[in-house]
Amino acid sequence: MEHIRTPKVEQVRLLDRFSNKSTNGTLYLTATHLIFVESSSNNSTSAAQETWILHHHIASVEKLSLTTTGCPLVIQCRNFRVVHFVVQRERDCHDVYSSLLRLLRPVSYEELYAFSYNPKQNDQQREEGWQIIDLGAEFERMGVPCDQWQLTNVNRDYKVCETYPRDLYVPITASKPIIVGSSKFRSKGRFPVLTYFYQEKKAAVCRCSQPLSGFSARCLEDESMLQAISKANHNSRFVYVMDTRPKLNALANRAAGKGYENEDNYSNIRFQFVGIENIHVMRTSLQKLLEVIGTRSISMSDFLVGLESSGWLRHIKAVVDAAIFLAKAVTVEGASVLVHCSDGWDRTAQVCSLGALLMDPYYRTIKGFMVLIEKDWISFGHKFADRCDQLDGDPKEVSPIFTQFLECVWQLTEQFPQAFEFSEWFLLQIHEHVHSCQYGNFLGNNQRQREDLRLRERTHSLWAFLMSEKHNYLNPFYSPAYSEAHPVLEPSTLPYHFKFWRNMYHQFDRSMHPRQSILKTVLTMREKNRNAESTLQALEKRLHQLSVTPVVTSDPPAPPPTRDQRSNTLPPRPDSLILGAPINHKEVQRQEEDDDNEQEEVGEEATESTDTERMVEGSSGTESRKQSYGELEGTYNSESAKEEPAVVSLEFGVARMTC
Amino acid sequence: MEFAELIKTPRVDGVVLHRPFMPTVEGTLCLTGHHLILSSRQDNTEELWLLHSNIDSIEKRFVGSLGSIIVKCKDLRVIQLDIPGMEECLNIASSIEALSTLDSLSLMYPFFYRPMFEVIEDGWNSFLPEDAFKDLESMTDEWRLSEVNKDFSVCPSYPPLVAVPKYVDDDTLRKAATFRHGGRFPVLSYYHKKNGMVMMRAGQPLTGTNGRRCKEDEKLINATLRPGKRGYIIDTRTINVAQQAKARGGGFESEANYPQWRRIHKAIERANILQESLIKLVEACNDQSHSMDRWLSKLEASNWQTHVKEILTTACLAAQCIDREGASVLVHGTEGTDSTLQVTSLAQIILDPACRTIRGFQGLVEREWLQAGHPFQQRCAQSAYSNSKPRQEAPSFLLFLDCVWQILRQFPCSFEFSEGFLVLVFEHAYASQFGTFLGNSTAERAKLSLPEKTVSLWSWVNRPQELERLTNPLYEANSLVIWPSVAPQSLLLWEGVFLRWNRSSKCLDEAYEEMVHIIAYNKELQNKVNSLRRQLAQLETEDPLLQTP
Question: Of the CATH numbers 2.30.29.30, 3.40.50.12780, 2.30.39.10, 1.10.540.10, which one belongs to the domain with range A8-105?
Answer without folding.
Answer: 2.30.29.30
